[in-house]
Structure formats: structure tokens, C-alpha cells
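=== How it folds ===
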Amino acid sequence: MDKQKRTVYAWAMYDWANSAFATVILATVLPIFYKDVAGIDLPGNLATSYWGYTQTIAMVIIAFVSPILGAAADYSDSKKIFLKFFVFLGVSGTALLFFVNEGNYLLASFFFIIANIGFSGGNVFYDGFLTEISDSKSIDYISSLGYAAGYLGGGLLLAINLLLISKPSLFNISSVTSAIQISFVTVAVWWLIFSLPAFKFLPEPKKRLEKIPLNKYAKMAFGRLKSTFIHIRKYRELWKFLLAFWLYNDGIGTIIRMATIYGREVGIGQTDLIGALLLTQFVGIPFALIFAKIAGKITAKKGIYLALIIYTGITFYGYFLDSALDFWILAGIVGMVQGGAQALSRSLYGVMVPESKSAEFFGFFGVSSKFAAIIGPTVFAYTGQLTGSSRYGILAVAAFFILGMFFLSRVDVEKGKLEAKNQ
């Protein structure tokens, strides 16, 4: 295997590694555990609302930190070092969920926030490598390859954990609760082990910049942050795309984070919820690559439009969700568009980013994706708490997709590419 292919596969393998967190912790097992075990004493739909607020707190922290991280990584040329740090942070927070028991919803929220900061912070630097290992011809494919690997890896561990949770006696485990707690540890181990190829094969810095004293590092990072705000506004099409992405990814992130606990609230069983989300993973594998082909035919921008139209329909269907079959259908449709929308968004952003500012501007992409996870879960949680039903919360998510499409229509991609080249 040549060096370029090895590097690309190592990069994609990190998506395989950390997607175990996205599937088991973020999307399926932990939300159910949060409602049924950690939040067992909470009345009505408060557990669902508190889970939404937990998402908001985690995302507020990482949204404010990630641009600093991106600028700092670009200045120090240390993306790989930062990636390792956040992997270890995420793995530690995930493993600590093993110790959460009945009624410990605050402890569950705290450990999840630590883990999610690790997950999100690591993605800032992972995304920053994309422009280093690809060119304008391969970026759509490589970005989609990462998402496909993530669906496969995350789906595989989710399948293992579904068996573990549904048949704990096969593994000599005393209860379903214990099986779920053990599943949290499997995520931590999986994430760490399959991150090792990225640690080994992703490119080292091409040059070493001058080291700065630790006591000046924060000052330099904040100075770079201020500079980034000024610089990114000069790239008008890139900036307009960020605004659109911020809106529609808010909707995508809300569905990822709230779908399972919402399904549990309306009475769908644990096995159906986990099984349906497993379907999402495996449907997502071919469709992440299919959307790359679609982008080649109709452009990435139109591919994103297609995904967002489908997402809008998902929110309306979700309002009327009434059975396990409905949830399975929705899960399959989400699998068709989730990876495609995110992969094409990342690659479309990448072709409008100046190469010399990749880490810095992908730090801003990290900000966008993190801020895009703040408002949606808050709106969902507050709407559900206010009305006493989360059905109105899922309906409100449609607004983010509609507004996102409106702002995306204002982006001139070809002009954005020229702006990046003529930096």
C-alpha cells in the first residue's frame, strides 16, 4: 500500500473509531439509560428535556473553545498532538459512565459533557487534516469515505452492544443495567484502539514553528481567534455557507441527539430503538458514498439541498410517530441522508477554505457544528417542557432545515473557490 492510501485509510479509520461514541453514547444507549435509569425519579418528560439541556451545555463549552483550538493548532502546527489529547479526554469521560446508577442523572450529565468535549474537540483537528490528505478532485470521495467508515465501525459496535444488552445472560452478566454499563466501557476501548492508526500515520508537521512559553500560549490563541474572525469575513461565500450550515446542521444535530429519547418517551421499546438506529448506521454506509456520486453529477450544493428536503419531511413524519414501525421507517430514511449531508457539507466547505488557513478555518467549521448543536436541543427541550409533549419539539426542528436551505441558496460556490485561491 502506498503512503497516500495508507494516510487516507488511517484518517478514515478515526471515523470508524469515534463513531462508536456517536452511535452508542450520543444517539442510542445512553439516552435510553438516561431516561430509564439515571433519570428514573424525574416525572413526565423532564428526563427528555434535561437530556436536551445537557446537550446544550456540552456544546456551549466546545463551541467557545474550538476556534481557539483550531487557531492554536495552526500556530503550533500540532494538530496530531491536540487530536490525541481530546481522544484521551473523550475516552476517559466515556469509561466513567460505567459508574452511573439509578437516579444519578446529574452524574450522567457531567460525565457525558466531559466525553462529548473530547469527541467534539477531536473532530476539530480530525477535520483539519482533510485538506492536507486530499485535493480538489478527491476531497468529496475522501470525506464520504470517512463517513462510510464511521457508519460501519459505529454500527458494528452498536450491533455487538445490542446483543450484549438484549441477551446479558449469554455473557454471564446479571442484569440489563449492568450490560449497558459495560457497553459504555466497550466504546471507550474501541475508540482508543482504532485511533492508533491515525496517531501513527497522519502527517507530522512539515515544519516546526518557534515554540512559545506556556504562560503566553493562551494570549497567542486568543489573539489568533480575533484575527480569524476578521479573516474569515473576507471570504464572503465561505462566510455565507457557514451561516447556512449553522442553521441546517442544528436540525441534523438535534435529530441525532434527541431521536432515541423522544422515541422512548412515546413508548417505543428499547430493542426497537437500538435496532432501528443500527439500521440507520448500515443504510448510511452505501448512501454516504452514493451522495458523493450524486455530488459528482449535480454538485455538492444540490446534493445538500436534496438531503435537507428529505430531512424536512422527516420532522413532520416524526410529529405523528406512533409505533415501532414508524420509528424503523424514519431511522431508515435518516440513514439515507445523514452521512451524505454531513460529508458533502464538509467537502463543500473544504473547497472554499484557503489551504494555508486549514486548521484555523476548520476550527471555525468546528464552531459552526458545535453552535449548530446548541439552539436546536434547547428549542426541543424547552418546547417539550412548556407543552408537556416533545412532539411539538420535533416539529419545531423543521424551521432549521427550511432556513438553512434559504441561506444556502445565496452561496456562489465557484466564486468561493476563487476567493480561496486568490487569498
